[in-house]
Design brief:
By secondary structure, this protein is an alpha/beta fold. It is built from three helices and nine strands. It has helices at 15-33, 49-58, 109-119, and strands at 9-13, 39-45, 63-72, 83-87, 97-105, 125-133, 146-150, 156-157, 173-176. The longest helix is centred in the N-terminal third of the chain and has 19 residues, at 15-33. Bound molecules: inosinic acid and magnesium ion.
């Protein structure tokens, strides 16, 4: 038996589909920036850590990796819209090409806050790559240059995404059967 109950968690995007899409995203990013362009991949903690690890290896360019932490108060499934930086980048991005790597853009409020914050640091460019997007819940328009998958309005877990800080290590994107969390952990 795995650590979770497979009868209660439904697979929405399996591991081979994730791998194939991330390989395509990496190729597109490589082609768009062009040979030799140096990139800073900025991962948003914690949710992006799995995606960033795979995406970085699918990009055939010299990259630096940095992370920042953002959190919004609210219930475990819904943002309050009040975003707080819990951890900053370790190095300046002035004059650098920044690619923000995010697990999911839901209402867009987190990404809007992040982009406004990053622009004050005068990077050469900023683009956004998100693994998932829930268009049904969008509250603010944010530029998304690269989107892995558009998904329906369900609370998803796995491949970095959590429910109450758990289930990040599921190797696929899943959801609770009948959308009835709490998930069995
Ligand atoms: P937004 O500010 O509403 O776009 O929310 C973005 C953040 O909320 C993401 O970075 C996730 O951390 C979290 N989030 C939104 N939807 C989900 C979900 O379905 N599963 C897990 N986390 C989610
Ligand atoms: Mg997140």
């Amino acid at each position: 038996m795995p650590f979770y109950d497979p009868a209660k968690i439904e697979v929405l995007i399996d591991a081979p589909s994730l791998a194939a899409r991330i390989s395509a995203l990496g190729a597109q990013i490589t082609a768009d920036y062009g040979p030799g362009t140096e990139l800073v991949l900025v991962g948003v903690l914690k949710g992006s850590y799995v995606f960033l690890a795979d995406l970085a290896r699918a990009i055939d360019l010299p990259v630096e990796i940095d992370f920042l932490g953002l959190s919004s108060y609210g219930s475990s499934q819904e943002t309050s819209g009040v975003v707080q930086m819990t951890q900053d980048l370790t190095r300046p991005v002035k004059g650098k090409h920044v690619l923000v790597v995010e697990d999911i853009v839901d209402t867009g409020l987190t990404m809007q806050y992040l982009l406004q914050n990053l622009m004050t640091r005068l990077p050469a460019s900023v683009k956004v790559c998100t693994l998932l997007h829930k268009p049904a819940r969008s509250r603010v328009a944010v530029p998304m240059d690269y989107v892995g998958f558009e998904i329906e309005d369900r609370f998803v877990i796995g491949y970095g995404l959590d429910y109450a800080d758990k289930l990040r290590n599921l190797p696929f994107i899943g959801a609770a059967v009948n959308d009835e969390p709490p998930f069995p952990a």
